[in-house]
Write a structure and sequence with these properties.
- Helix 1 packs antiparallel against helix 2, helix 3 runs antiparallel to helix 5 and helix 4 packs across helix 5.
- This protein has one domain.
- It is mostly helical and about 190 residues long.
- About 80% of the residues lie in helices and about 0% in strands.
Length: about 190
Amino acid sequence: MVTEGEPGSLVKVFYLLVLSASWGMQCWVTFVAGFVLIRGVNRHTFGLVQSKLFPFYNHIVMGLAFVNLAVYAVYHPRELLSTTESVQIALFFTSLITSALNARWLSPATTSIMHKMYSIEREHGLGKGVGLSADAEGYKRLKEKDPKYQALRKSFLRYHGISSLCNLLSLLCNGGNLIFTALLLPTL
């Protein structure tokens, strides 16, 4: 059922709460939580915490992106979309796709590789230092000495980088939609 016209006040409030909750959570996880955590716990604890939180985070972002897209699409039939509304639909769709990639593929793959790396690091007495630069020399030696670890690290960095880009793109899409929503506040 396609609906056009003015959404009710409850729909507007719901839409804005979902969009702002998603964007706020993304800002917190992307720019605050990880940086605070890496400075306060050892590397392996940091990775373990991230591996437990990120599946929930990624699935929540994906779910909220779906809800945002669905609510917006119901009140903006394709046949009647303006250019601005088309951009918003594209931003919501991009947010949904990038968060789904993170939730269903990138995050599990990154976590699996990380656990394999941590197993090798523990064998060499690494992973207990706090901060990214802790025992940098030990990691450098391990990378040079163990080709399996080097390959795992390369895969981890690739998946983690793509995951980070997807997360950032989703965050930017939601931020863009917040801007459009603020500029077009009376219409949703």
